[in-house]
Every structure is written in C-alpha cells, then in structure tokens.
Amino acid sequence: MKFSIEQAEDFVSSIFEKDGVLPTTARSVARALVAAEAAGQSGHGFRRIPVYIKQVRVGKVDAKAVAVATRVRPAVLSIDAHLGYAYPAIDLAVDQLPAIAREQGIALAVIGRSHHAGVMALTVERFAEQGLVAFMVANAPASMAPWGGIKPLYGTNPIAFAAPVEGSDPLVIDLALSKVARGKIMAARQKGQSIPEGWALDASGQATTDPHEAINGTMVPAGDAKGAALALMVEVMAAGLTGGNFGFQASSLLDDTGTAPSLGHTLIAIDPSLAGDTVFAKRLALMASEIEGQENARLPGRRSQGVRKQAAEDGIVIDDDILVEIEAL
C-alpha cells in the first residue's frame, strides 16, 4: 500500500496511540520510522512496528514515559528517556543542544535508560542543517564478540557524523561497527531470505547464511579487530557515560522478552565557528567537490538523501507482509 510521507506518519502514529502510547511520543516514533523507511533503511522502519508494539504491551517499553532533560553543566545535557522509546529523548537533544553549542562552542548530551536509536544519520543531519557539526554514538544489545571470542559482548554500536556543506545537502556518515546493520538480518528473517556469507556467524562461531542462526549467533565486525575495538569504544561512550546497560546486560530489541533494554546514546554538537572559522561550510564544499569530481566517487550520505527526496515526491510503500502483521496486532 502506498502512502505519502504525511499519510504514513498519521497511520503509524495511530497504531501506537491505539496501544496507549502518548500522542506526542507516538508522533515522534512515527516520524522516525517513516523517515527511516523513506531513506531506504527498512530494517529500522516499518518492520520495527510489530516488535515495538509487542514490547509496549508487555511493559518492556513504557508507553507513558516522558523524557526529561537536565542541564547538569554549562555545556552538558543529561536526558533520561525513562525506559520509553528513544525518539522523544533524541528530539529533546535536537531541540536544546544547538543553542548550547552556539553559546559554549560545544555541547554534549548523554541519553540514558533508552531504547533503539534508529537511523542516526537522520539525527545528526538535523544539526548539520542548522550549521553545526554533530557526532553521535549508541550502544545496542550484544551481538558481536570481542575479536577472537565467540560470546557476544558488544552491540553493532553505530557511529554517525554530519557537517554542513555550503550550497548542498550536509555531509552525513552513518555506519554500524558490524559489517552490516543488524536490522538487515532482521529484515531478511522476516522476508524468509538468506543473508550473504561474511555477515554473521552462528552460535558456535561458524559462518552462516541463515538469518535465524545469525540472530542467535554473532555479527562479524567491520574491519575485523579494528571494528571490535571501536565497538568497545562506543560501549564506553554510550553506556559508560550515560549509566545505560552495556550490550551484554541489555535485553534484545527484536523480541518482547526480558526487562527494558535501558541503552545509552551520546551526542556532541560543535559550532564550527568556535575557532574563528567563518567559512567552514564553504571549505567543506571544496572537499566535497574534490571527492565528487573523481569518477565513480560519491560523498557519504548522498544515496540516502536522494532516496528520501524521491520518497517525498512519490510516497512510500508499506509491504503487504508488514500490513498483515500490523492487522494481526
């Protein structure tokens, strides 16, 4: 079924409101899921709806939670998601950090007791659109083993970065520290498809193309030992600084069993004029033109931005199998 962006947001928001989620929270979640789908990130989009709803019904996510932000230092916000969805807490950071960054030169938000952070490119880009440089990390339930091990300790732990480019869309970099985002494994499992070899290992540490075995096993880190080390860094930055659960302590985001995941996210916003540079975005445009001037080279984030613009014009489709799951709920 095809929807415009606005229709999709209304539809998704109504699903959550019917299950008792606060209207403002439902709208925040809907905007994030629809934006993910419009960006071509289906593993973080509509396919999350059934499990998000099931988690509300068993209390794994608090439908009535209201995120609260406290300015604990001149340049630091501490945000408690109160075991609700992550998106209202992230919205608070996006609303409040820019003014602090312009006042202090740099601003930090630590978000604790949170949930799935979604497509973080969409978060950091919101800062870059305001002329700021942004960096974000988030930890996730354990799905990667330390290099050389087979027991999952780290999440896929994404890192995202964005910066303004004069006369163009922002530069946006968003990557999971596994070879692929775990949402792609989940999407393959829902569709009954196999996954490429090299994405994941089964519970015994052997390569697998079965998404069910992959979900119960471990993800392969990007860059091997380097990726595993970066995933540990994110655990410290996202869970250590926020008081959130480390990946191995957090329950799964993909089912309705266990207690609240209580994950952490850390956001940094920087005013690029803090060092007296008033032409930052123009200089970045020069770098962008050098990259895009090379044959077959592409600036990170451009494909997703193009897909989103197309979706804004043509609308987006909710697959039949997802509609069936939603109706069954």
TrEMBL record:
EC number(s) on file: 1.1.1.338
Alphabetically ordered keywords of this record: Oxidoreductase
Keyword Transmembrane helix: no
GO MF terms held by the record: oxidoreductase activity
Enzyme class: oxidoreductase
Any one Pfam family match given in the protein's UniProt record, by short name: Ldh_2
Entry keyword S-adenosyl-L-methionine: no
SUPFAM superfamilies noted in UniProt: L-sulfolactate dehydrogenase-like (SSF89733)
Domain of life the protein comes from: Bacteria
Assigned protein family: Belongs to the LDH2/MDH2 oxidoreductase family.
PANTHER family the record matches: MALATE DEHYDROGENASE, OXIDOREDUCTASE-RELATED
Protein name: (2R)-3-sulfolactate dehydrogenase (NADP+)
Organism: Rhizobium skierniewicense
